[in-house]
Design brief:
Helices cover 60% and strands 8% of the residues. The protein is built from 13 helices and seven strands. By secondary structure, it is α+β, with helices and mostly antiparallel strands. It has a four-stranded mixed beta sheet, with helices on one face. A three-stranded antiparallel beta sheet has the order 4-2-6. The protein folds into three domains: 96 residues; 85 residues, Aldehyde Oxidoreductase, domain 3 (Alpha-Beta Complex); 123 residues.
């Protein structure tokens, strides 16, 4: 069992390294969270410990006939669990770290984050009513906003008769010169107010997380496509697969909410801006359009995908899709040296685009 456990660790490390080098290092946190590998490793180590303890007890004549029979039954049970776990783990480790599996994990994490934000676009607060004003609260540490405790902000604001306007959503890079939030009082002066609880409600870390940052998943998918389109890799098929994944995610975001899905604001003193579809499209398509401009099959698929988004019910998504379609067409016109290739891209575009 110790040998198998050692082999498991080696296989997991190799899979993690493969995911970081073939996809993107930003996907490592999803790959390392693979439950099947962790359960298998814990099963193998547990079986090893059980065998050592049982062997020691038998060698010292600790058990009588009944005890030996029970030990035999337990050994057979654990042996069966180990065999089942090993077979299941072999199938999992064969997929772990592969490009397709990594893309699937990123898509699942991004879709879950998009669903949560779609059902609570303002994080259960209220929409921003006016331009940000009031007393600015700046970050002390430099890093990315990972989580905002809206409930804590609501309690603090209700206690002090304040309103808090969020200026940095999860995923925003926080620095000392960028406000995290603005505080406005219902009445009175803010000079003596202690804003430490407001600052404490913002969790700031060194890296972005998938849970509360839907745009991060789009960035990671775009990075995977960009690496696939690099001259060293030259894998346009992966980029085309990523484009399809992005369209599925945007379709999920664009799907209408039912009455049961919509949530009424719970935190009436916290104003939270919604995610801008233009920023989401920038995260998703800019790198692909730039790196794939000289590859006709990628450029054509990108135009078809953006044309699909251009028929969205959301006018902001339509406008962003139209903008990126025109921009990608301009890039393709510069990068494609064969006139027929550009005509194919132009024919797939939602718009006529630049002249030949």
């Amino acid at each position: 069992m110790l040998v198998i456990a050692t082999f498991s660790v080696g296989s997991m490390v190799s899979a993690y390294a493969s995911a970081a080098t073939t996809a993107t290092p930003r996907s490592f946190v999803l790959v390392v969270a693979d439950d099947a590998s962790q359960n298998a490793l814990s099963t193998f180590v547990g079986a090893f410990i059980f065998s050592i303890v049982a062997l020691t007890a038998v060698k010292n004549s600790y058990f009588q006939t009944a005890g030996l029979f029970i030990l035999f039954l337990l050994t057979a049970l654990i042996f069966s669990v180990v065999i089942f776990t090993f077979v299941r783990w072999v199938d999992s480790i064969a997929r772990l770290g592969r490009m397709g599996t990594t893309i699937e994990k990123v898509e699942i994490a991004t879709a879950a984050s998009l669903k949560r934000r779609k059902h609570a676009p303002t994080l259960c607060g209220v929409s921003v009513s006016s331009e940000a004003s009031g007393r600015a609260v700046h970050a002390v540490n430099v890093g990315y906003v990972q989580y905002i405790n809206i409930a804590a902000l609501q309690n603090w604001a209700g206690k002090h008769k304040m309103r808090v306007v969020i200026a940095a959503l999860p995923g925003t890079f926080a620095a000392q010169n960028r406000p995290l939030a603005y505080i406005r009082a219902d009445s009175g002066d803010l000079a003596e107010l202690d804003d430490t609880p407001v600052l404490a409600a913002f969790q700031i870390g060194d890296v972005r997380l998938f849970d509360d940052d839907p745009r991060f998943g789009l960035v990671v998918l775009s990075e995977i496509a960009g690496r696939a389109l690099s001259p060293a890799v030259n894998d346009p098929g992966t980029a085309i697969c990523i484009i399809g994944t992005l369209i599925r995610l945007f379709t999920l975001w664009d799907a209408p909410l039912t009455n049961t899905d919509s949530q009424t604001p719970k935190y009436n003193r916290i104003e939270v801006p919604e995610i801008c579809p233009q920023d989401m499209c920038d995260d998703a398509f800019t790198a692909i359009a730039r790196d794939g401009a000289g590859i006709v099959e990628v450029a054509v698929r990108l135009q078809k995908a953006l044309g699909s988004l251009a028929s969205s019910h959301d006018k902001n998504i339509r406008a962003a899709a139209e903008y990126h379609s025109e921009l990608a067409l301009k890039r393709a016109q510069i990068a494609l040296n064969v006139a027929e290739d550009f005509k194919a891209v132009q024919a797939a575009a939602h718009f006529t685009g630049p002249a030949d």
